[in-house]
Amino acid sequence: MTKSSGSRPIGDRRARISDVAAAAGVSTATVSRALTYPERLRPDTREHVLQAIRALGYTPHEAARSLRAGESRMVLVVIAYLYSGAFFSRVINGIESELSASGYTVITGSLDGEEGKARRLVDLVYARQIDGVIVLTGHVPVFDGRSILEAGVPVVAVCAKLDHPGLPSVLINDEECAKIQTQHLIDLGHRRLIYVSGVEGHYNEVKRYAGYLKSAKAAGLKGSDSLRLAGNYSFESGADAARAFLQLKDRPTGVVCCSDELAIGFMKTVTGAGLRCPADVSIVGFDGIEFADYCEPTLTTIRQPRELLGAEGARILLQELNAVESRKSSSRVLRGELLIRASSGPPPRLRRKQVLRVAAAAR
Amino acid sequence: MTKSSGSRPIGDRRARISDVAAAAGVSTATVSRALTYPERLRPDTREHVLQAIRALGYTPHEAARSLRAGESRMVLVVIAYLYSGAFFSRVINGIESELSASGYTVITGSLDGEEGKARRLVDLVYARQIDGVIVLTGHVPVFDGRSILEAGVPVVAVCAKLDHPGLPSVLINDEECAKIQTQHLIDLGHRRLIYVSGVEGHYNEVKRYAGYLKSAKAAGLKGSDSLRLAGNYSFESGADAARAFLQLKDRPTGVVCCSDELAIGFMKTVTGAGLRCPADVSIVGFDGIEFADYCEPTLTTIRQPRELLGAEGARILLQELNAVESRKSSSRVLRGELLIRASSGPPPRLRRKQVLRVAAAAR
DNA sequence: TTGTAAGCGTTATCAA
DNA sequence: TTGATAACGCTTACAA
Q: Where would I find the beta strands (DSSP E) of A210-324?
């Protein structure tokens, strides 16, 4: 809008609401309403205002909006970077799609090592810069006695569970999946199994190990519970576990891993040492990351619905953000799925029999 | 505001600066200074104030600070999600470490597909919620004619180059690295090479292909320039390229890939089809992602200094943010490094000779 | 349906 | 060294 030169922002200054108001010949309140409650304006007024907004390239100053409205429209996603990348990127994708559709901006903050990181995240929330939090980790940032859980913003846990009353979480059926994963090896004929763990004490780790044990016990496998190698979800720790495995005198034939990275690191190391997979040793992973399709052999694993986990967590958070009162949203459990690929097969003993059987049939 | 009970925040209300001021018996200005310019206060005053801050658990309201101070202390990192994960996570790590040490918060925004994404990013910047931008993509978000480049905030490109005058960038010596990568295969004796590309027109792709061509031409290989398979950096497109490769009548023996994911997808597909790597075909990747150590065989590749690239970009951005005037910071070129692993070896013909030679020596 | 005007919680200017 | 006070740019009662 251009008639009166007074309506143009002076110089290079970014247009503000009063510039738009002047240009459109209305009050600032009307401009504000044109953006927030368009239906409350007379259509022609609205048109004028929107036109002026476009003409001046006006974008509301977010800090001012935030300050006045008492909300930031930002959500913090807390990750434990060290153990994440390949798996969590998709979960975060699901979160972002869902939240940005509702006008929220996502900040992801990692929580490894340094204390400074936790401090910054806690500060962010206490500075009222964050309206809600999604944690992908088993513990929440705490600094100087202040916890995000007490900051007065809604928190939702995804792929993790916190023992905080009333804190909603979105999980998969970890224990059940681990049972299936283990049972798969048992069904193939394996009688000696070993488990490669995630980080000690993590919810996922605890549940998956429990599932492993249950399947093993139910099948009458003995000693399987003592066969457990410590890991932390990473390639490297999978390789470490494999090196320990190679030292064992009477090696198990089936390996149940708490993550795909573990499984792949393990696999690479044992095949590098001359074992064949799955001929000598079967390996199953957990997560369903992309790389599980491109390692050699391809990895039998549990596929988690990663985007969905994120999206569902975001949806629950949105409910809490819009909740009139502290009406608590409920948690949700999604289902993982066994993907059978090339890294699992019958154990060596059965394999020999099979071969003999085939040979006999051929005669 | 003042003496005893009036100095505590009422009810559950979060403490604000006036509460602290009252508790410490000073003005709000003094409280503000205690946090921003502690050296300007008398030590005992400062102590009183800091104590009150601690006692009340006061954290300044960021939106208010932002509004008044005219800066948000937020930096936007723009990524092209689709082609990123394994590689860029580390670059972003480098950026975050550097920026958060200077009190900045990082928001990462992906730029794939939907127009809505670009819109949100542009809005973020125009809403003055972003003080600076680091782009990890070849193009910058634009929406409705408004580009982040014209928003009046400093922009730095990392692992990418934009043709915008005076825009600093942090790169590696892509072309040089691609020459080294290609020369490595030539040195091993390969005479027929093929190139698997990144996204057409991307800076990295263009430079790497140029390097490939130069090495190939310099070695007198002919026809190498026509042997180029289209890809987009992903596992899947590497697999696609491999399927095309398998159809070729007279197959090259050396494969130069524009990314590690391409190389790994390619490798998996050709070995799955019965070719041996490197006995039948040698493959080299580019980037140095973690997976390159765990595929089979391990991948010969160019390692990029990922954290460093990010950190350096962040440092340049910080300079621009603190620059008194538009004193332009310069760009920077870091160096990649050839990592020779198991996926590259002599071509079949030479390999045979070698074997004969060994056999002769054994006699 | 639209306008007036009072803050939102800081920081910065100026004065004491 | 400290304090009073005026913005920063917006939203939202309340009034018209």
A: 228-229, 254-257, 282-284, 301-303
B228 touches chain A (CB under 8 A): no
Chain C nucleotides covered by protein, CB below 7 Å = 1-5, 7-13
> Residue B6 — very low, low, confident or very high, per pLDDT cuts 50/70/90?
very low
The three-state secondary structure class of A178 is helix
- Starting from the edge strand earliest in sequence, which strands make up the sheet with A74-79, in order? A105-110, A74-79, A132-135, A155-158, A169-172, A332-334
In whole angstroms, what is the distance from residue A38 CA to residue A49 CA? Answer: 10
CA dist., res. A31 & res. A318, Å (int)? 27
pLDDT at B290: 93
Q: What is the spatial distance, in angstroms and rounded to an integer, between the CA atom of B51 and the C1' atom of D4?
A: 24
* Cβ-nearest to A127 among B61, B67, B293: B61
Q: Would you call A100 and B108 a contact, using CB atoms and an 8 Å cutoff?
A: no
Query: Are the Cβ atoms of B127 and A61 closer than 8 angstroms?
Result: yes
Residue B9 near chain A (CB below 8 Å): no
CATH architecture of A74-172+308-334: 3-Layer(aba) Sandwich (3.40)
pLDDT tens profile A7-35: 344 456 789 999 999 999 999 999 999 99
The partner residues of A173 in beta bridges, in order of sequence, read none
Lowest mean pLDDT among A304-308, B9-13, B275-279: B9-13
Which nucleotide does the CA of A42 lie closest to, via C1'?
A: C1
CA-based nearest residue to B105, from B73, B134, B132, B148: B73
Q: Which residue out of A13, A58, A59 would a mutagenesis test of the B interface target, given it has the greatest number of B Cβ atoms within 10 Å?
A: A59
* Residues B45, B26 contacting (CB under 8 angstroms): yes
Domain edges within chain B? 17-69, 74-172+308-334, 174-304+337-348
Which of A14, A237, A298 lies closest to B239, judged by CA? A298
Q: Which CATH number fits domain B17-69: 3.30.565.10, 3.40.50.620, 1.10.260.40, 3.90.190.20?
A: 1.10.260.40
Question: Edge to edge, what strands does the sheet with A254-257 contain?
Answer: A228-229, A193-196, A254-257, A282-284
Domain at B174-304+337-348, CATH class: alpha beta
Q: Tokens standing for B179?
A: 């020459």
Residue B268: CB less than 7 A from any atom in strand C? no
